[in-house]
Structure formats: structure tokens, C-alpha cells
Amino acid sequence: MWYYQSKKDDSEVIDKLTALAESYPTRGFDEYYYKIRREGLKWNRKRVLRVYREMKLSLRRKHKKRLVKRIKQPLETPLTLNECWSMDFMSDALTDGRKLRVFNVIDDCNREALAIDTGLSYPARAVVETLECLKEEIGVPKYVRCDNGPEFISKTFMNWCKKNFIEIKYTQPGKPMQNGYIERFNR
After folding, report:
1. Is pTM, for the whole model, over 0.70?
2. Helix/strand/coil (H/E/C) assignment for every residue in 103-151
């Protein structure tokens, strides 16, 4: 059985979508379609969507990273040295506009600064290197207290703590007062 099949010439749609994708790479289909309609082109939405999908221009959805629920714990004063270390970052800007990060580690018992380290970029690997130097000099604590920054929730940092039998006590997001010793030090 033979039936008529229309020839679809989508070259205009392809050219227009390619131009829009180059101009606005982070926008999605809806934005492209509304721009096409505002320019007065009367292409059917389903047709434009079909070509958009054939061109594989779909953006991947970014899902919000969920933080693990933390148990509320009061800020306790350790009675011995190397029982608890508090860690945090401070930021500043250099005269040329670059961002400077300062990594601070203090012992909660006597509030002694164990490490003050700076860098333009300070990833989890650098945090572990600093803690490794402290481990060689004065040993390791029973636990560390820190916020939910990307350096502290990374697998590199968590694996290092696990390997050295160090418990991590995270503060709740948006509650710096739960890590009061280091926040006071950072002032």
C-alpha cells in the first residue's frame, strides 16, 4: 500500500535554532520558541520542539543537592587539647580584584591557632594537605567542627577523616553560631 508522505524542509528552523543556541547557550526551548515567535515567524510549536529534540539541544536538568540532616548539638568546651578542632574559611579581595581565601584551624580547648593558610583557590585537597601537616606536628583530634562548605562535604575530606578515625560535626546550614569558636577567631 502506498500513501503520500510530505517532505519536511526544516532547514530554516535548524538555522534559527542553531543561531539562538550559539547566542544563548544556557537558555532552553521555551526561550528559543518565544524569541522565534516575537520575530514574527509562525512556526508550529510541536514542529520547533521536534527539530529542537532532533538537534539534541536539550539542557540537562540541574537538581538541587540535598544536604544530609544534621543532629543539633550544643557547643561544648573540650577539656583536653586535640579533642576538637574548629575549621572555617575567610575571604578577602586583593587590590587587583582576585579573591583570597584564608583557611583557619583552631583548637577549641585553648583557642590556639593551629593553622592559618592562604591561597587564591583552596580546594578540599589543599585542606587535607594542611591537616596532614598538622597531624605530623601535633597529632589528630577526636573530632572536627566545620560548616557545610564544599571543601568540608567533599569525599576527599571525608575519606581523610575516616582514615584517621576523626568524627566530623557539621553545623546546620545558616547557623554559624554553632561553630562559635572559629567564628569569633575570624572576626
Report:
1. no
2. EEEEECCCCCEEEEEEECCCCHHHHHHHHHHHHHHHCCCCEEEECCCCC
